[in-house]
Amino acid sequence: MEHAIYHAGETLIARFDLAGFQLGEKNRFEVDYGLAVLNAEGKVLFTQEHAASETNAPYYPQRLLKGELTLNLQAGVRPADYTLQVKVHDHVANADATAEAKFTVEAPPN
Asked: Are 16 and 67 in contact (CB under 8 A)?
């Protein structure tokens, strides 16, 4: 979605693909990811550094992982523009990557 619109009290669901992580010995991979919510000025309002992790050593190389985060927008969330930031850490390569998506919280409909 180019620019998602939510209302206070709703749940934001972010689904994404993780690709480009390095494979170690015997196709081993280990990645974890977290999230941050920033206001329009870039100030961090909420962060969860370790939201999820994936570790495996499959027989065949795995090049893509499906990720998902949910964020409950509490009833008191101020209507404004926000940025969801997903931060990924690849433990095999000891590398980080960040992706961002903008969203808006509007006043609840009457």
From this structure: yes
Please enumerate in sequence order all residues whose Cβ is within 8 A of that of 33, keeping only pairs 6 or more positions apart, or say none: 18, 51, 52, 53, 67, 69, 86, 87, 88, 89
The count of C-alpha atoms lying within 13 angstroms of the C-alpha of 64, restricted to the half-sphere facing its C-beta, is: 3
Per-position pLDDT tens, the chain of length 110: 577 999 998 999 999 999 999 999 999 999 999 999 999 999 999 999 999 999 999 999 999 999 999 999 988 899 999 999 999 999 999 999 999 999 999 987 76
Count of CB atoms situated within 10 Å of the CB of 59: 7
Residues 6+ apart with CB under 8 A from 2: none
pTM of the model as a whole: 0.88
